[in-house]
Structures are given as structure tokens and as C-alpha cells.
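Chapter summary example.
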Amino acid sequence: MRFFIALEIPSENLAQFQAIQAKLHTLIPQAGLTDLDKIHLTLAFLGEQPDQLKDKLVQIIQKAVEGMSSFEVTPAYIDGFPNIHHPNILWVGVKGDIDKVLLIREYIKDGLASLHLPVDARRFVPHISIAKFSSEFSVDRNLEANLEKIMTENLTPIQISSIKLFESVLNKGFHKHNALAEIKLQ
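The structure predicted for these 186 residues follows.
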């Protein structure tokens, strides 16, 4: 299975991401928008691993969130990977209880390391991918200012009450995300 661990965005918050994407699409029509049913905040991507690893991954998540209460993050800004000026991916950064997101991520990384699984060593920035580009694209200062304007509205905080283990299944050239387990926060 192709596993990843993520914070799923609740359905009540998807309308604001749809609105952000609509404004983004007006500015950049060639951007490939992320399907709303795939909007999430990835904590760890494991790639292809043996199916029997599922139970151990659930245990790692359970241990990572043990005693942790639900919390909120709020969409705050748009950025890109590898950077905002030449993005392959555009994403929404979040503010709020970022310390909890980072703590959960570190606990999950420790658990994955104990199983000798690969852990992404790059600096982790909590983000929600909203669009991608199939060819080279650049953002000039004017477009960057317009992207900033998209995020000036008061956006609704996202209530994080669980962590999910997902599998990503290739289906006719696209990936479908199936939730395998949901671990609730207190």
C-alpha cells in the first residue's frame, strides 16, 4: 500500500478552500486545482510499504496523539514549492496551534524511525496543497500581490479532532485517497 498520515480538513471548511481555489483559478487558469476530497495537511508520506504495516502505523499515530486535545489551525497565506516565484505546487499555510501540529509530526517521525522507515528530512512547513502546475510557471510581483489579496478575508478556523492514516490508490492515472484508520484526539 501507498501510505500517508494526515489531518483531514472537515467538510464544513471545504467551502472556503473551494472559494480560494476559484479566485486562484481566475488569476491562474492553467493551475491544476486539487480535488476538494483530497484537501488535507500531510504529516508524513510513507510511499509504498507492505500492507501488514497498517496496524503498526495506527499504533504510532495513537502514541503520537496520546493525551492531546483537539485544536485549531486557520488558513493564513499562500506559498509554493519549491518557492512562490517558481512553484510546482501552490499551498495554503496555516497559523494557530502550529506547535501541536509540529509536536505530532515529531512523534510520528520518531515512531517511523523506530520501524526503520524513511522520514523526510526537509524542514516541515504545515501546509494544504491547493494547486499544481504541469509545466514551468513563474509568479511575478503583481500576481504575488493578488495571491496575497485572496487570503485577506477572515477565514474560518479548522477544528482538528483526529489524525487519519490514508492509502493512496492509483486509479486511471489519478490517485484516490482512502481513509484506513481515524485516531480521535481528546
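To summarize the output: The chain has one domain: 2-74+93-128+156-184.
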